[in-house]
Amino acid sequence: MTTITVIGAGSASFGENTLAALMRSKKLKGSTLRLVDRNAQSLDIVHRLAKRLNQEWQSGITISAHTHHKEALDGANFVVSAIEVGPREELWKSDFNIPLKYGVRQPYAENGGPGGFAHAARNVKPVLEIVRDMEQACPDAWFINFTNPMVRICDLVNRYSKIKVVGLCHQIFIGYCFVGMVLGKDLGIDVPDGITGMHADVLNHPLREKVVHQTLPLIDLRAAGTNHFSWILSIHDKRTGEDLYPLFRERFASFDPQFEPLSREVFNAFSLFPVPGDTHLCEYLPWLSDPVTKPWEKFNIRLYDWDLMASLRDFSLDRLNEMANGNVTTDGLLEADSEGALEMIENIAFAGNHYHLAANLPNVGQIANLPLGAIVETPVHVNGAGIHPMHVGSLPESIAELCRRELMSAQLGIDAAVEGDYQKALQCLLLDPVITDMNIARKILDDYLKTYREHLPQF
């Protein structure tokens, strides 16, 4: 039986969904599950919930809880990681606000822009500590990463350790939602009213899920690029094999022009449809930060609601605690989705044969005109021999160039954070499309390094 270590298990949404998906797996019956979180209170909640599920679902899993990852790595086959240096929302808001002092307005500040550098740099030390310990305790284990910025963290593991890494993200389903909404009448999909966009919104999410669940059985969508910056290469009807990209282009031309207008403009300019929706797409483009024309207003780029999401995190933990105490039913967890972790684990451990819509792996040629060794996102096949990327050929050169710039900036940022190299950190910011002034880049970097000194002592 396999041994799975989940680091960051106390995360309200990630911990709940990953835990429930693993616990209900019939294939994993008899396996060992080690839950790790530095927050002892959150860990206790998830541990008690796991024990309840283990009993009620007759999962037959051996469960343990640990406040340090080193206690939970020995002999592990899979290490699932969703760690985050926190407080997450407070730091993200700071990443956004610091450049504002110098006249630089980032469109989102999570995975790209100067904020993407700061976000990744804070997570470098704890992730590197985990994978270096894995090299000693479980060198053949897979590191399944959910921590953002996805490209940068996977790049860190790939280039600075001997551990196999795969990054998983559910953003591909935004592409399915786009296609389902645009081709709804053609495919017989019931599109609910009230979907205002693809941004992070607690009201929109369940409505989009309804579209995705109807679209997945009907459509084969293939996309490739980099995480949160991938592009739809083909759209086919699963029942007939028909190429639906021409119909999608036709229908989208008359679709609501106010719905995700940045994606529309990029589609018109580059001829491939971008997957992630405007709020992630905007992070990697050079045309969203001009302080004079304020394009974020034209495209209605919505910022993350940091305060709301922080309060929802606390609410979710309270709800999990009620579940753990036996006061609330766990029936809703029967449909929980691990965002791909379960599929990776089951099919590698038990020699399955699984096609996965999107995963992040080092480029071994699956995207021919992106740098070898860089972290790219394509469909993959998973079996007992591991995770195998599907080769998709070359991206259009204009799109590839946008991706290459982001990949190089990401690698420079990781090198800088690992080495404590100020010069490389500055180069990372200077390559970023948000930055247009060298002196301002230096001021932003200096402010970040001063503000986050406790997280970035290597500088």
Largest sheet: 6 strands, parallel
Q: Give the strand order, joined by hyphens, for the main sheet.
A: 3-2-1-4-5-6
Total number of beta strands: 12
Distance between the termini: 43 Å
Radius of gyration: 22 Å
Beta-strand percent range: 15-25%
- Broad shape: globular
Quaternary: single chain
Helix fraction, binned, reads 40-55%
Element string (H = helix, E = strand): EHEHEEHHEHEHHHEEHHEHHHHEEEHHH
Please mark out the parts with pLDDT under 50 across 5 or more consecutive residues, or reply none: none
Written account of the structure:
This protein is α/β, with parallel strands linked by helices. It has a domain at 172-298. 45% of the residues lie in helices and 15% in strands. Helix 5 (150-160) links the parallel strand 5 (142-145) and strand 6. The longest helix has 25 residues, at 113-137. It starts with a strand and ends in an 8-residue tail after the last helix.
What attributes characterize this protein structure?
459 residues, alpha/beta, six-stranded parallel beta sheet, 45% helix, 15% strand
Concise synopsis of the structure shown:
The protein is an alpha/beta fold. The protein has helices spanning 12-23, 40-56, 88-100, 113-137, 150-160, 172-182, 184-187, 204-215, 245-253, 261-270, 278-281, 295-298, 306-324, 341-349, 397-419, 422-431, 438-451, and strands at residues 3-7, 32-36, 62-66, 78-81, 142-145, 164-167, 219-226, 229-237, 273-274, 353-362, 375-383, 386-389.
SSE diagram, text form:
Elements: E1 3-7, H1 12-23, E2 32-36, H2 40-56, E3 62-66, E4 78-81, H3 88-100, H4 113-137, E5 142-145, H5 150-160, E6 164-167, H6 172-182, H7 184-187, H8 204-215, E7 219-226, E8 229-237, H9 245-253, H10 261-270, E9 273-274, H11 278-281, H12 295-298, H13 306-324, H14 341-349, E10 353-362, E11 375-383, E12 386-389, H15 397-419, H16 422-431, H17 438-451
Parallel strand pairs: 1-2, 1-4, 2-3, 4-5, 5-6
Antiparallel strand pairs: 7-8, 8-9, 10-11, 11-12
